[in-house]
Structure prediction request, 423 residues.
Amino acid sequence: MGDLKTAVDLQTSINTGNLESALEGLKDEDGGSPADSPAPMPELREPPAPSPRRLEPVNKPAEQPEAASPAAASDAAAEPGSGAGSGAGPWVGSPLPAPAGEKPKPAAPAGSAAAAPPIAGTGAQLFTPTGPGYLSVHCVTWNMHGKDPPESVEPLKIFIPPGAFDMYVIGTEECCRDITEAMLISSDKALWEERLTELFGDEYVQLKAVTLTAIHLIIFVRASHVHLYSEIQFGSVACGLGNYFGNKGGVAISGRFCDSTFIFVNSHLAAHDANVQERNDGFLRINTELKSILDCPPPPRKSPYPQYATSCFDVAFWLGDLNYRINGTRAMVDELLGMWDEMHDVLVANDQLGTEMGKGNVFQGFEEAGPLSFKPTYKFDTGTDVYDTSAKARTPAWTDRILHRSSSQIEALQVRLLLANVF
Prediction:
């Protein structure tokens, strides 16, 4: 286990007078392989003025669901292509009551780890619209780089603290097998799920899990709350070669908690610096295909994006290795990282995902789960917090992301960085 470090939130202003001097003399060259070399890069942009952030509450709760027939919440492996399924217990929606005389507790800071391999995490609290209680949710995305989980659960506790939240949503990419192996050999996630079950103990139960090749999503909930969940569904959409192979794509789990509907999507989008449009197309395909795969409820409010599955639920979280890069060469980004306090906002302003969202090209209606106040999560030498020193010399980037959209209130959303040598 390596050192554990916590990033410090940085101011969102920048001394633009330092921009030219910071970049003076930098050469426009990249040490990466041809596949990782960016297209001709635009000039680094200065960050725009920050805009206020607002989430709107639900106008009225959704209709009460009928009791579902009993079914086991077990893993469902999807074949290449698109797949769907459902599984729910005999659970009738009802508000989660807060203990008598006790106010809802604030969200605990959530962990986000990023090193060998990169992990990102966030914690949030969601209102139950018809009751005084809260549901606390912890989301994690982790590219496991084809490795098996650690033999002990202790390293997992760094970024998945058991007992602290009501719901844990854990998305992994390249889980237990790398992309090539998973396409050729059946990708069994039993070992990973067993390790998580050991981590959470008897206090939690698995609500649902879904797999597409090496992409995996699993949800654990408090056993004492399981009767409050219903209408559980799952689906997968392949975006690999010919939109058939699941080396790239997304998986989703949706359902209802009390009177609130939810959907969680984990995706692994197209790689390499120049493939911005392919990543945008992957989001569009996954979100529109899920709309036809899942039995989506009517949108809780009029949406400008009715074609998206995520528009049909009160709360949507999208996590994964989204693979968006920073517009710049390795030399340029390294130089700016070396002046982190002064140049952090320049890096953020040149983040491809933020740029594409600002243009309205992707993740329309979504917000980042938290500010990019931590250093890029891609790509570290294994077992270190040193950026790629291989011959490819990949340019650092915030590839691992968590976003959300909501028609109900989300409170106390927090993200912080934990650099942890998990293996």
